[in-house]
Amino acid sequence: IISDQKRQKIQIKEKIYDHKPRLMSQITWMKKQE
How big is the CA angle at 9 (ends 26 and 28), to the nearest 5 degrees? Predict the structure, then answer.
């Protein structure tokens, strides 16, 4: 059984990985706007 704390950490990691591509595309978009 996975403890709630571990599950929360995993969810946070997944959220971070989820946001990474979006963040990178935002950075490249900002560079294009310059």
Answer: 10
